[in-house]
Amino acid sequence: MENITLEGFVNLYKKTFPSIEYGEKELIKDYFTDFEYNCDKFFTIYKSSSILQGDFLSNVKFTLISKNEDVLHTDTIGMILSNTCDIKHDEFIVMAPVFPFEYFEKIYPKEKKTIDSIKKNLIFRFFYIPSCFGNPEFVVDFTKICSYEKKYLINKLEKDNTKKLLSFTQLGYYLLILKLTIHLLRSESIEAKRE
∠ CA(12), CA(18), CA(23), 5° rounding? Predict the structure, then answer.
């Protein structure tokens, strides 16, 4: 799944979302060919008063535990993964951290193919977001998901310097759902033994 081509991605998009109108399916290839230059097709700075799935929030604290059981904290942008309906009704909200694209360029300094694949959104554990509406390029990391009490995030939005930076358009939302589906719910390999 990591070495999928653009054509393969478009076919996967069509299979995953058969109910999306034909015209939108045909446009997806053109959008992804120049993804960086079409950010307004996928993202908006719509300032809804409610929190929506896929919203990007500034200044969110992420906590991870290392292999040595060290507790690591980082303050960065967070993208909401919880479904919008669940956000309204549940006590906790799930988010993924968002890192500057240059962070990945430093991690993979000699791996141009990996960097290119991240930038083309062909590695599904990462979601590359182009520079858009004054925000720099960044990458959502679906492998470092954290859970937050909803009241904590609401308080941060109301009283702290946390702000909504970016939201998805309907087409961008389809891309988010596709990437989450493939990353979290794709079929297991034949090596996975279940009884």
Answer: 90
Q: How far apart are CA 156 and CA 172, in angstroms?
A: 26
* Whether 32 contacts 9, CB under 8 Å: yes
Q: What is the 3-state secondary structure (H, E, C) of 103-143?
A: HHHHHCCCCHHHHHHHHCCCCCCEEEECCECCECCEEEECC
Q: What is the pTM of this model?
A: 0.79
User: What confidence score (pLDDT) does residue 32 get?
Assistant: 62
81 backbone dihedrals φ, ψ, rounded to 5°: -100, -25
Kindly state the tokens that stand for 17.
């979302």
CA gap 36, 164 in Å, rounded: 21
Residue 183 φ then ψ, to 5°: -70, -45
- The answer to whether 117 touches 2, Cβ cutoff 8 Å, is yes
Over residues 127-150, the mean pLDDT reads 91
Q: How far apart, in Å, do the first and last CA atoms of the chain sit?
A: 25
Tell me how far CA of residue 56 lies from CA of 125, 153, 155, in angstroms: 17, 12, 16
Helix axes 6-16, 170-185, angle to 10 degrees: 100
Region of 69 on the Ramachandran plot (φ > 0 left; ψ -120 to 50 alpha; else beta): left
